[in-house]
Each structure stands twice: as C-alpha cells, then as structure tokens.
Amino acid sequence: MSTPPTEPEEAADTEMIASLSARLEAAAQARLGRSLAIRHVNTGSCNGCELELRALSNVFYDLERFGLRFVESPRQADVLLVTGPLTRNLKAALEQAWDATPDPKWVIAVGDCAVDGGVFKGSYAVLGGTGLSVPVDLTISGCPPQPNRILSGLRALLEANAA
Amino acid sequence: MARGRDYGAIMTDSAPTAGGTIGASPAETCKPWHRHDLTAADWAATARDAAAQSRVLLAHWADASRVYALFLDIDANAAVPISTAVEGGAYPALSPLLPAAALYERMIADLFGYRADGAIDPRPWLDHGTWPGAFPMAPRASPPRPDFDRFDPGEQDRHMVLSIGPVAGLIEEAAHLRLTLDGPAILGAEAVLGFTHKGTLGLMRGKSPRNAARFAARLSADSTVAHSIAFAAAAEAALDAAAPPRAQRLRVIMLETERIAVHLDNLAEIGRLAAARSVSTLCGRLRETLLRASQSAFGHRLMMDCVVPGGVGADIADGGAGALLRACADIAAGLTEIRRLHDGTALASRLGGLGVASGTVLAASGAGGVAGRAGGRAFDVRPAFMPAFSQMPPAVTIAAAGDAAARQAVRIGEIGESLRLIGGALDALPAGPVALPLPQTSGEAIACAESSRGDIWHWLRIDHGQIAAAFPRDPGWALWPLAESVLKTAMAEDAGMIRTSFALPASGMDL
Ligand code: SF4
Known about the structure:
- The structure holds two protein chains of two kinds.
- By secondary structure, chain A is an alpha/beta fold.
- Chain A has helices at 14-26, 48-55, 91-100, 112-116, 147-162, and strands spanning 36-42, 68-70, 79-83, 86-87, 106-110, 126-128, 138-140.
- Chain A has one domain (36-162): Rossmann fold.
- Chain A is 32% helix and 17% strand.
- Chain A has a five-stranded parallel beta sheet with strand order 2-1-3-5-7, sandwiched between helices.
- Chain B contains 19 helices and 15 strands.
- In chain B, helix 4 links the parallel strand 6 and strand 7.
- In chain B, the strands form five sheets. Chain B has a five-stranded mixed beta sheet.
- At the A-B interface, strand 1, helix 2 and helix 3 of A face helix 6, helix 9 and helix 10 of B.
C-alpha cells in the first residue's frame, strides 16, 4: 500500500476560535488540554452526516493525529457532536446524552439538519435543530458537510479549548 | 423488459380460486403493470395464494382510501400490485399468512389509523407517543396517542436483557435492539425503529416530483442514488416520460459508484470491528479516493440530488470521467490485496459461520441484496427490472454459505463487477441532453433500483403534476426481521458484528 496521502493541515478558523475562547473564559471553565473525546449523537439523520464522520478516520483526514477521538459513552465525552434534524422520537435520547456528559461540555451541530432542521423543517415529526433542545456552541453547515469542514470546526474547538 | 402486460393473469394461473375474481376485478394502470383493485375477500384470498406459492411480499402500504401490496412473481419477472378499499377503518391483515407484512401493518396503523384485522402484531411501530397528533397521514387530525409499553415487563425478571441504542456505538444509525440473554447466548432479539421518523411521506405529498426528489434522496444517504433513481423512474413512468439515454447511462455510473463506495465502507467497518487494521485502512483510503472522484465528476461526494426526475441534475464535469477511471483503477489494484486479506486466517475465522442467513428463513424474509445473494438467493433487480441495464447486464455474484464471510465475499465480487460496469458505461456514453422537463399530467407507477443493500421500490401517484401519494420501500423492511431471527441463535458478543454485516439501515424505513 502506498504512503497515506494525508491532507495538509488547514489553519483553524480564527473567527471561530475567538468567539469560542471568549465563551470559554466567560464561563471560567477548566482547561481540558489539547485533546477532545467526542460522543456522536444521531437525532434523526439520513446517515449522510455519519458517512462523512466516518471518513474523518481514514488516512486522508486521520483525526486522531489532532488528539480527536470518538468515544462510545457520553460519560467520557468532552463534546457532543449532533447530526440530523431533531426528531420528536429522539429528543429524549439527546437530552439524556447531554445530562450524562460531564461539565464543561461542548455541543456541535453538524449538518444543515442539526443546524435548523434542514429540508425536514416543518414536518410534524421534526422539531428543528439541535439548539431547540440543548445549548449549541458551534454549527457546521452542509448537507452533509465535507470532512475537511468538520475537521476544521473540531480543530477550532480544540484551539479554543487550549487557549 | 416487457411493459404494460397484464400480469394479473399470472397470479391466476395456479390460483383458480382467487384467479377468476382477480381476472374480473377492475385493473388500474400502475405502470408498467396493472394493479388489481380487489374486494376484501379477494384481497385475503390473494394473500393465501401468495403464501401457498411462497411469493415474496415486496412492499405493503396505504394512501387516503386504500391499502396496497406488491408481490414478486419471479417466474414471470414481474411485480404484481394489488389493492383493496379500507372499509370502516379496517382491512384484512396479511400477516397471519405472510409474517413479512407485520411491520408494514404497524406502520400503516401508525400513519393512517387503519386497523389490520387479524394482524399478528398490533403494537405501534413509528409512533412513539411523541407526535402532536396520532395518524398524521389521515385526512382528519386525532389527539396524540399515549406512550405505550412495547415489552413484556416480566421479561426483565426472568432473563437478563441487554438494551442497545437508540444512541449507541461510535457512529451509527439510531435504532434500538433489545436482546434477551441466557448467559452469553441470545434467546430473543427484537428491534425497535422509528426513532428517525421524519414525516417523509407527508413532506412529499402535494409537491412536484422535482421538489419531492430531495426527500427521496434523503431517505438513506448510502442509498441516495438508488432511492433517487427508483423515485425518478416511477415519476417518469407515471407521466409517460423517459429520461434521455445519456442520463440513463450516467445514472448507471452513479449507482455502481455508490455500490462500490458503500461496500468499501462496510469492508472497512467490519475490518475495524475484527481488529483487521490493514483492511479498514486500505478500504477507507480507497473509498475516500472514490468519493473525491464523485465530487469532481458530479459535484457531490455522495451524489445526493444528482439524479432528478426527468434525468440527472447536471452532465458529468470535464475531467470527471478521468477522475472516476483513475479511482476505479486504484480500487481494482487494491482488490487483490482485499481478497488476500479476507482469505487470511484472522478474518476468515472471525467471519466464517457467523450470522448465517439462508434457506427458509432467508426466503421468508424476502431479503435481496448482499444478504440474499450471500445465502444463495440470486435476486437482483438490475437485469430484469431496470431497463438502463438491458444493454449491459451485470453478472450477479452469489454465494451459498449465508454467513458473514459469504457476505464480504459477495461485496468484494460486486465491487469488481461494478468497476467493469462503470468502465463500460463511461466508454459508451451516448451524446445528447441529460434531462427533460416532465409534463404536468397524472398517473400511477412503480419503479425499482438495486441498492447496495438490495432492491428498492417506489410507488407514486401523481395528480396534475403533483404527488398525491407515495411509498418508498427500503431494503431495511426485509433486513431487520431477517437479522432478528439470525440474532436469536447468536452470541451476545457477536451482535455488533452481525448488525454491521447485514448493514442494517434505519432512516430509510423509518420514513
Ligand atoms: S444534513 Fe443532509 S446529510 Fe446530514 S442528516 Fe441532514 S439530510 Fe442527511
């Protein structure tokens, strides 16, 4: 097999970093260090956002090299990464995951659906975006967002976290 | 393929009781077939005949006045749609004779409020007691149903129960699996879905096929091309239109590209679960290469919204064919290594004999796709039911063992065949337009596509250019009941691997 064609490291979005750092300082939260454990929460996704989240682990993006990793339990998580429109049938599951995640915690809404319900807005079965149920710190739009956009959002969080 | 033939007659050949009545019943046009609208008694009689002849129930759904069923007549290479009017809010259940109907009956009851008389399982399915009103697809609003107890409360005292999900695993679709255990062995397995129900049928209704296509494309993202093709082909057939030849060929390229990408993703996931790092690394890399080629060729990594009713959204980009061919060459070069790694003892011993689906269990489920073909059921809708493949019929990969190893062997075989189909289609891309406008007329049709998980069927009724009613049948309807019966004889520690091996979906059948 040939050498992994790893992506060049894109600079993390500075505006994102500034706003996130400000929020972190205001809350006077403890620093978590330069590594983040991410718990994925699916609130009704079509599975497209998941496909791109899985791509983050391939050798092109290799998210572990930044100290980012997915974990199975919200109890071990620093970040809840939410995908999908918030369906009425999954609202309780999201709130349980949020309650189970220790403070300080971050919530990222990934994909147009998680941002505001996306194309499913207005359906009887869908409430809207993640923010209707839990406070959201960062949104990453796209349907689904490309892996490099998700990665730069996560890295912005990492920088803000370590700032 | 034969079009417009009266396949109702086929049902009558070996079914004299129902036969005479079906022949005499009014035949509605449901392109490319005829739909027989039956009395309740003949509907029930047809179900008896179908069960006696082991016909596969492909789909079962409802609209504002009727219930419908679609059977496969494998000998005649035909799908046979029937319907019956819902009277007094009820219709005769199919499930006592055809257990595969049970989940559909629960879905119909939840969305429309129709009672399936004699149903084997009357519990709710999609309705979890959270909607603003019950029966959201019914003409009149109803107050919400209270939450309900799905499970026998005493079970927990008698056995150990392992509840997985709806939010579980690293990056998964949302579904709940409840396993009843006897030590490490599984005694019972029951899936609960509906968590990702997004109200798709309601969102499609009243829109033009063009505007509703984005919901078809978002039923299940790893089958976005397949669902979009079946939806578009149904809309085109209903309105007596056809996508131009160049668009048909581009759809073949997209469908086979999707199949390779999804199979590579599954190989990578199974590799990860089996701690076969070299497999997950290699397949993950090849998949990414292909998604990037899709981005350059069609403008979207997953090709979402690239197939539209009337054709395709845009022509293949300059340089797109080259990018796809380069990615295909990479994958072809990697296939030898992928095969070698799967023949190696580590993977072969982990996957061999695991999660066996074959014989009568498989046949009763009606599951096609990788799960069907790995267990010897050679069903694939591409050769018989998808006209775009008539000039380039795929060789269908089958295996006999029905275990997780056989499913990976079928996936690997299909990647090779899809590479060949993409090369052939790119080589002979007809010139001409890539889309035509659809007329604002009326009609009813059924069309299908072979997704990476198996056959997808879309039924549509269009009224003056707007969708009056729709039903998309995702392969999940057959795969989950099959996986439940396979899990019942498995070990608890293998549940995750078996689930991934069947590539069990949620969103597509949650609607
Ligand atoms: S944003 Fe797009 S890809 Fe993600 S869940 Fe929504 S529809 Fe699917």
